[in-house]
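Lab notebook: predicted structure, single chain.

Context: the supervisor wants predicted structures on file for every construct in the current expression panel, including those that have not yet been purified. This is the next one on the list. No modifications to the sequence; it matches the entry in the shared construct table.
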Amino acid sequence: MLVINESEQPEALVFWLHGLGADCHDFVPVINALDLKNFEFILPNAPIRPITLNGGMLMRGWYDIESLNIETHDTVGLEFSKSMLEDIIKKKINSKKSCPKIFIVGFSQGAALALYLSEFSHYNFSGVIALSGYLPMYNKKKYDRSSLYAIHGTHDDVINIALAKKSYSELIDNGSLKYFEFSMAHEVIEKEIFLIKDILMSECVS
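Prediction complete. Output recorded below exactly as produced.
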């Protein structure tokens, strides 16, 4: 796990979840570009596990992926990673002098887990931002939902934008999720970084 801008009393805690096969160092350049010195960023590592879609190859993944069909889910893996992250969140909160606002940001598979946390975690987050991801499942019983944001590339060749939008449809229709598109592939671009910064700053003062 990597921590950036560690502080006894940060303005906010931002838990940043990497994508499949990456690690905690993957988004350091993006976080540096955000230039939010009063925000503490926590970048955990996903467990190393066999990924069925990749022939059982061992790699860091928040849960297993059996196919490109995002409507099938490794619920056991999602629950394991949710519990792991809730333990990290609890320890971080307990280490602070005051209770800061808490955000979850995730990319690709990390984005799916971030939204899963927003739906099923006992924590209520100040905001959740899903980058190039999708909603694994919809929990209609969660009424105290966090502020949810999703950003996707129109040319994403890893997670098809039509499938991603379909997974978000109920949240968009009921006004629970704000959705943005950029002309990009499965990546993070400069315009998107500006938007992420605006979201974090605005939700932190709201």
